[in-house]
Amino acid sequence: xxxxxxxxxxxxxxxxxxxxxxxxxxxxxxxxxxxxxxxxxxxxxxxxxxxxxxxxxxxxxxxxxxxxxxxxxxxxxxxxxxxxxxxxxxxxxxxxxxxxxxxxxxxxxxxxxxxxxxxxxxxxxxxxxxxxxxxxxxxxxxxxxxxxxxxxxxxxxxxxxxxxxxxxxxxxxxxxxxxxxxxxxxxxxxxxxxxxxxxxxxxxxxxxxxxxxxxxxxxxxxxxxxxxxxxxxxxxxxxxxxxxxxxxxxxxxxxxxxxxxxxxxxxxxxxxxxxxxxxxxxxxxxxxxxxxxxxxxxxxxxxxxxxxxxxxxxxxxxxxxxxxxxxxxxxxxxxxxxxxxxxxxxxxxxxxxxxxxxxxx
Length: 361
Ligand code: TXA
Ligand code: MG
Known about the structure:
Mean pLDDT: 93
Order of helices and strands: EHEEHEHEEHEHEEEHEHEHEHEHEHE
Bound molecules: threonylcarbamoyladenylate, magnesium ion
Shape: globular
Structural class: alpha/beta
Low-confidence stretches: 230-235
Radius of gyration: 21 Å
Largest sheet: 11 strands, mixed
Distance between the termini: 47 Å
Number of strands: 16
Strand content: 15-25%
Helix content: 25-40%
């Protein structure tokens, strides 16, 4: 597989052509790997019930075998293909959130290779809503295992260009359906506990789940920086740029934010580092005044975390590729998709600044 030419086939994101879908389906059926757009990020797809194809997914990504994959299905009716039993709450959740960016942890069906679930007796399943993902699932008739289509630990891809930059020559095909509309991965929900628990915040907000289920717990994730302090040597950064160091500035008041940015920019520039900023639309004016020459990208308004989520990964990649040594990112709160944005920034960050003095910034 590795060393092959990767074919990139453009498709209409709303109405993909049947011949492209058939070609991709044939590739999957013969054990090949096809990257395709979902509403969240691009997935790196292989036949979930074919152990060799699953093995290839791990190899192409450079992903450790201990990290389980999500299985994609065309509809809730296909669940018996991959799960052993279906808890009652699934029909309610499916009614509200499928197809869509919600992944459920369910009892693993016998036909699902243990390599998919990293040896667990549960399997992660979701029904994506993107028309290209839907059509590929229906035309192939397969359950498709698909992690995000990036190299392990890196930033997830929201365009076919991102996929090719990471996986060119390592996979057979990419269906290029343009930029993905949500931009962060699905919400992973564990429903085996009395109170359902979000294992990874994502495209379905905690508020939306709670409106249907009542209270929902959140598996608290420490920032990778804090994990590193708790257990040095175990730092495993995810969602992180290749080159640049990402610094998250999590100071709620605007005044404090400006002050923190000023300190951090001075500090970084004194050491000769190139600094770029990922900010909100509302920050553009003061940033322009204080740092007219600094590279900056406004990801969206503070009132619109959906737009920020859609632009987040492309923004991180753009700053990295522009040769920035340091990327300063502001925090976007926890409302709606803000929670998923903060989770990804925690995992990507080398440093989190919460108090100006305490961090010596
Ligand atoms: O939006 C998405 O979910 C994208 C698109 C392509 O569908 N996929 C994605 O896959 O983000 P990946 O492999 O990057 O993330 C899978 C997540 C990981 O956090 C993994 O730990 C969790 O799902 N997961 C998978 N199987 C699990 C299981 N049996 N129990 C608990 N967590 C599981
Ligand atoms: Mg991933």
